[in-house]
Write a structure and sequence with these properties.
The chain has about 1100 residues and is α+β, with helices and mostly antiparallel strands. The chain contains 35 helices and 29 strands. The longest helix has about 80 residues, at about 545-625. Among the domains are: about 55-140, 2-Layer Sandwich (Alpha-Beta Plaits), CATH 3.30.70.1430; about 205-225 and about 235-265 and about 805-895, Multidrug efflux transporter AcrB TolC docking domain, DN and DC subdomains (2-Layer Sandwich); about 625-655 and about 960-1115, Multidrug efflux transporter AcrB transmembrane domain (Multidrug efflux transporter AcrB transmembrane fold, Up-down Bundle), CATH 1.20.1640. Strands 1, 2, 3, 4, 19, 20, 27, 28 and 29 form a 9-stranded antiparallel sheet that branches.
Length: about 1100
């Protein structure tokens, strides 16, 4: 018997399976959409990817030490060990009074956990001086801004405000998930004051040290061990703490039993408050500010949303108090993200609309439009898996890709339609054949675009972090659109286009499912039971123990079988019914829509037909004079490039938030009260000019603050914002406010004002100069020369050096010989003097359910006049009053505020803002100015800040751009099996880049990292149209002459080229037209792609045919067509 092998069916292969199994495609599509939606809702929101270098801080306390001692004993010793850390980029130490902070900045990719362990090991090897506390390693930068700021104000006293902030508001806020700490600033802390009559105290033979020791020793609660009495154990506890003001006032002071001297005899004991170390005001009214910091690994938007929810539900407060959210960094981020979402949706709508105008049919447009939401939702799944946030770059990548997401679907659907209409194939066969014919071209085109993003691994610095998220989103979305075009579109095309399914012998249901074979399953179970029953002993017991399990399993299988028999046919019929309802509805909608759209469609296609005719006539002229056309394009390109030197350079565009912050620095030594009075007078004038402006003022320094930069009694930090900034032009609002601040600041001639935007991410100042010298006199001289150079440059503002004048101080030099004859040593005398001047905390006292400090201080504070300080009696020795002037020489001097070291060398850091817009040009001028300053041996002047980052990022992106062009060429050379034709196609790349530069110059947008990212994306887009045009010419040349093939290919591809270009351009257009939060970042990214693609598309339709006329294809004509030769 001879066997006959059946011929292969035309509907075989993977695409046939897709077309013939619409249910599987539908279910997988729905599953991906659902999981994409879930992933989208779980993605965290951030403004930008994390562009801060991995940072760790080593903090070391040295009580009582001056900055010089802190530098010598801590900073220098630790730096020697930490300088060898792997991956260390920069090391900066700041030595202040009693504390040293060493900031360690690592390169990208450094494992922070490993670095943390290495730092701990290195620190353990350093032997620090006695009295230095153990160094702490902080996993964050203590100079970062809080995520939110809450204000507590009202008619209540500042002590009540502070207690409510500390006891209620702080605890409620710190209970929020993701909040690391909530720190109150301002207000007055309740205290028990022991105000001593120093004259009466001295006459009784007492002094501040003796009184302090007596109060400390008498106020003790301490465990005393355990006593066993029979069968009972008793804990022994010394309960000797003060419990009332009366008890404290009645404290006996002298050990002499005949003396009845009590504390109340020489001091007044009362409930009072601490000195106001930090003064805070909200719109000129006293308030307490609560700064909220998030945990290192928490999401800023999620934390802020929980804070808002907690405040919305309300924090129970007395009637006279009000809790208000003053500052929320996440609000701007949310607004910026919503703006990108909105513009992306609008772009998607415009892309679909232009598709409809080209296709003139509703249902085909709908099929292709489905690729956008499906591809976008599928993209969110790998984003969630990779722990990538939704930010301006990821959403910008989606917006960039929206126009490209339909390109593959357009090609596939056109191929299916051609096979059905031109070749007369049945709908299902047309779907299979049409998809198979273009699958290779679609995959190759997508891979060409994706090749552009491979160089991401070579991009360093801030650009690498920004480009990483952007490229991954585009790669994921394009891969998703490729899968959709090769699966969903072929499965839907024969069904949604009004085509009836073939094979009438099959049941016409949308799908049918196979019933579960429970009988076979149970037969297998019974067979196993029989085998187990034949066993003996323990195995037989085990077999019987498994019997209940098999019964339950059999019942479940039977129930499932019965349910399946009833449910599956019903479900199939229900879905079949909905399918016809949806199809009928779409057909009616398309009919109604066509009635209204027909006039517009006729006008559009009339214009398109006229445009094509003009293009055909121009194509003939290009054929006769290709060299003339190419030379003209080259000259036009050179003209644009010749004017490109006027283009400004910047790192990251500044984003307007409708808010500004200012640091107002008065002369060092200005009292806190005077700082606040002058600043409030200045702010009153600002508020009169801007009535809707809200101001938050904080001045002073709290030793417990984590942040010690830009704080002091002479510095006022002011935050200003327009509460309804979203309804205003943010950029104009900021410019108007800054202009008012600089104009009105002339009323503060002795003050220096530094105005900046609130920090949305960690980025250095536009201008930073690092002056390094071991010799402090040379350092001061070079720092002064650099400052003078900066002050002469136009556009430089807010100049500040870290080498500031020190605080004025009384420098006390003790006489060691005299101290030897007295009962106190130098530290004890210094402590006694400090108590006379500032007071001393000597214990705690229970008050209204909490412990407050007991502070010992004189009734009449010692003035800070030099003569009063010298003549102040401190104690009695041998019946003689001993004054400070008797013990020491007191002189007026100046002490350094801080000592800064960068990479192991004493340094000064000069920073400034720039009012101009060409940061790159400014840096060239700065380099020229710094080169003029003579630098002796051992000194150095470096330009850092954004200049350093910009040079690194621009060089890295330029390298990535060249590598992208090379990879695109490699892919095309492999695709065409030619070395010449890819070069012709690559000619559109410089045209696109020139178009992008022209767009930036016309709109006056600086060339930033964002613009360069857009250019790299542009490389992968513009070559696609040229690829298709050249490929079509090669195919036509097999049956025609080369000139005819090029002309026909250009005319054939004219419409598809316009479709793909316009869908991408219109998809990005809303990003350039609409402002709002984050517009400064969106604009250069979208503008480069729009202008570059427009310019390249127009010239591609002329340049590529001209080059093909000049350099004919090596394709040989077909033997059946001798005319072609």
């Amino acid at each position: 018997m001879q066997s006959h092998q059946a011929p292969p069916s035309p509907s075989t292969g993977p695409f046939a399976s897709v077309v013939q199994r619409p249910v599987a495609v539908l279910m997988v599509t729905i599953a991906i959409f659902v999981f994409g939606l879930i992933s989208y809702n779980k993605l965290p929101l951030t403004l930008l990817p994390d562009i801060s270098y991995p940072t760790l801080t080593v903090r070391t306390a040295y009580p009582g030490a001056a900055p010089h001692e802190v530098e010598t004993e801590i900073a220098v010793r630790l730096e020697e060990r930490l300088a060898t850390l792997p991956g260390l980029r920069h090391m900066t130490s700041v030595s202040r009074a009693e504390r040293a902070d060493i900031n360690l900045e690592f390169r990208w990719g450094t494992d922070v956990d490993v670095a943390l362990q290495t730092i701990a090991e290195q620190i353990d090897r350093v032997r620090l001086k006695e009295g230095v506390e153990k160094p702490l390693i902080l996993r964050y930068d203590p100079t970062l801004e809080p995520v939110a700021q809450v204000g507590l104000f009202g008619d209540a006293p500042l002590t009540d405000l502070w207690v409510h902030a500390e006891e209620v508001v702080r605890r409620r806020l710190e209970a929020i998930d993701g909040v690391a700490s909530a720190r109150p600033r301002g207000g007055l802390e309740p205290q028990v004051h022991v105000e001593v009559d120093t004259g009466a105290m001295t006459l009784r033979g007492l002094d501040m040290l003796k009184l302090s020791k007596r109060l400390t020793d008498a106020n003790v609660n301490a465990p005393g061990g355990r006593i066993k009495d029979g069968q009972t154990d008793y804990f022994l506890r010394a309960n000797n703490a003060f419990s009332s003001i009366e008890e404290l006032s009645a404290l006996p002071l002298l050990p002499d039993l005949q003396s009845d001297l009590r504390l109340s005899d020489i001091a007044k004991v009362k409930i009072d408050h601490s000195d106001e170390k930090v003064m805070t005001r909200v719109d000129g009214k006293p308030a307490v500010l609560i700064e909220i910091y998030r945990e290192a690994d928490s999401n800023i938007v999620s934390v802020a949303q929980r804070i808002r929810a907690r405040l919305t539900r309300g924090i129970k407060s007395p009637d006279k108090m009000k809790v208000v959210l003053l500052q929320d960094r996440a609000t701007f981020i949310e607004e910026a993200i919503e703006q990108v979402k909105s513009t992306a949706l609008q772009g998607a709508g415009l892309s679909v609309l232009i598709l409809f105008f080209f296709l003139r049919r509703f249902l085909p447009t709908l099929v292709m439009a489905l690729s956008i939401p499906l591809s976008v939702m599928a993209t969110f799944i790998p984003l969630f898996a990779q722990d990538i946030s939704l930010n301006l770059m990821t959403l910008g990548g989606l917006a960039l890709g929206i126009g490209m997401l339909v390109d593959n679907s357009i090609v596939v659907l056109e191929s299916i339609s051609r096979c059905h209409q031109d070749e007369g194939l049945a709908p299902l066969q047309a779907a299979v054949k049409g998809t198979k014919e273009v699958a290779q071209a679609v995959i190759a085109s997508t891979l060409t675009t994706l090749a552009v993003f491979f160089p991401i691994v070579f991009v360093e610095g801030i650009a690498g972090q920004l480009f990483g998220d952007l490229s991954l989103v585009i790669v994921f979305s394009l891969l998703a659109s490729l899968v959709v075009s090769l699966t969903v579109v072929p499965a839907l095309a024969p069904r949604l286009l009004g085509v009836q399914m073939e094979n009438s012998t099959k049941e016409k249901r949308f799908f049918s499912l196979q019933k579960p074979k429970t009988q076979e399953l149970m037969a297998e179970f019974k067979n196993r039971l029989q085998k187990n029953n034949r066993k003996k002993g323990v195995m037989k017991v085990v077999a019987w123990l498994t019997w209940p399990f098999f019964i339950v399993l059999w019942l479940f299988a039977s129930l499932f079988n019965l349910t399946a028999q009833l449910l599956f046919p019903l479900l199939g019929n229900v879905l079949w019914f909905f399918y016809f309802i949806i199809q009928w509805f779409l057909q009616r909608v398309s009919s109604v829509f066509a009635i209204f759209a027909e006039p517009l469609l006729k006008a559009f296609h009339g214009a398109l037909k006229g445009l094509k005719q003009k293009y055909q006539s121009q194509l003939t002229n290009i054929q006769h004079r290709p060299w003339t056309f190419c030379i003209g394009v080259v000259l036009l390109t050179l003209v644009v490039l010749g004017n490109a030197n006027s283009l400004a350079f910047s790192l990251i565009p500044n984003m307007s938030q409708g808010a500004l912050q200012a640091a107002i620095r008065f002369p060092v030594g200005t009292p806190l009260e005077q700082t606040v009075i002058q600043t409030e007078t200045f702010l009153d004038a600002v508020r009169k000019k801007h009535p809707k402006l809200q101001t938050v003022l904080a001045a002073g320094i709290d030793p417990e603050d984590e942040k010690l930069e830009d704080v002091g009694e002479h510095i006022a930090q002011v935050f200003m914002q327009f509460p309804n900034a979203e309804n205003q032009d943010l950029q104009n609002a900021e410019r108007s406010l800054e202009s008012s601040l600089r104009t009105l600041s002339q009323s503060l001639p002795d003050a220096q004002i530094d105005i900046s935007s609130p920090a949305l991410f960690s980025v250095k100042k536009p201008v930073s100069i690092y002056v390094k010298a071991h010799d402090p006199f040379l350092l001061k001289s070079l720092n002064l020369q650099a400052l003078q150079k900066l002050q002469r440059l136009e556009g430089i503002k807010d100049i500040r050096s870290s080498l500031q004048p020190g605080y004025p101080e009384y420098q006390v030099q003790y006489n060691r010989e005299r101290l030897l004859t007295l009962p106190y040593n130098a530290p004890q005398v210094a402590r006694m003097l400090k108590t006379h001047l500032l007071g001393e905390v000597v214990g705690t006292f229970p008050h209204q359910g909490r412990l407050v400090d007991i502070r010992l201080l004189p009734q009449h504070r010692l003035s800070f006049e030099l003569q009063d300080v010298k003549q102040k009696p401190l104690f009695i020795h041998q019946d003689q009053l001993v004054t400070l002037g008797h013990l020491a020489d007191v002189n007026i001097g100046e002490g350094p505020m801080e000592i800064r070291r960068i990479d192991g060398r004493r340094s000064a850091q000069i920073s400034a803002n720039y009012a101009g817009f060409n940061l790159g040009g400014l840096h060239n001028i700065l380099r020229e100015q710094l080169d003029v300053i003579p630098t002796p041996v051992g000194t150095q002047m470096e330009l850092g800040g954004q200049a350093e980052e910009m040079d690194s990022s621009l060089a890295s992106l330029g390298y990535a751009l060249l590598l992208s062009v090379f990879l695109v060429y490699v892919v095309m050379a492999a695709q065409f099996e030619s070395l010449k034709q890819p070069l012709l196609i690559m000619s559109v790349v410089p045209l696109a880049l020139v178009g992008a530069l022209l767009g930036l110059m016309v709109v006056q947008v600086s060339l930033s990292v964002m613009a360069l990212l857009g250019m790299i994306v542009l490389v992968g887009i513009v070559v696609n149209n040229a690829i298709v045009l050249v490929d079509t010419a090669n195919q036509r040349a097999r049956s025609q002459s080369w000139a005819q093939a090029v002309q026909e290919a250009a005319l054939m591809r004219f419409r598809p080229i316009l479709i793909t270009a316009l869908t991408t351009i219109l998809g990005l257009l809303p990003m350039t037209l609409f402002g709002g939060a984050g517009a400064e970042v969106r604009l250069p990214l979208a503008l480069t792609v729009i202008t570059g693609l427009t310019w390249a598309t127009v010239l591609t339709l002329g340049v590529i045919p001209a080059l093909l006329f000049i350099f004919p294809s090596p394709v040989k004509p077909s033997p059946q067509n001798p005319e072609a030769s």
